[in-house]
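Example 9 (inverse folding). The structure is encoded as follows.
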């Protein structure tokens, strides 16, 4: 015979939920960081403007060296002096590493440009 004063319990009563919810929140935050690592740890203020391509907006020619892909703004698999116009410190050694003397740097020549620029102390 059932007792009329007994309470009906569900699989998840309030005490169990109060323990599960914080764990679920922590797991969710952890997954968000793992799934989207590019945004983890970045400042939210003006983040859209600060992530632009350095080969397109470094008008003063200072800062980190652009990668070959960043410097090759037209995607033709060569880097020309025109594509490096925002990086005058790279233009100083352009002719020295242009092995074909064709005004275009292939990827291996661009790597030589990076090394030569670093060697001359222009960029750290």
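The amino acid assigned to each position is listed next.
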């Amino acid at each position: 015979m059932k007792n009329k004063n007994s309470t009906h319990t569900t699989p998840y009563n309030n005490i169990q939920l109060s323990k599960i919810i914080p764990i679920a929140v922590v797991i969710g935050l952890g997954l968000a960081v793992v799934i989207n690592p590019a945004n983890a740890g970045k400042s939210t203020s003006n983040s859209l403007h600060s992530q632009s391509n350095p080969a397109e907006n470094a008008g003063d020619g200072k800062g980190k060296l652009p990668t070959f892909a960043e410097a090759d703004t037209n995607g033709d698999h060569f880097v020309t002096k025109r594509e490096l116009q925002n990086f005058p410190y790279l233009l100083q050694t352009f002719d020295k590493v242009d092995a074909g003397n064709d005004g275009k740097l292939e990827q291996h020549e661009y790597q030589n440009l990076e090394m030569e620029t670093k060697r001359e102390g222009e960029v750290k």
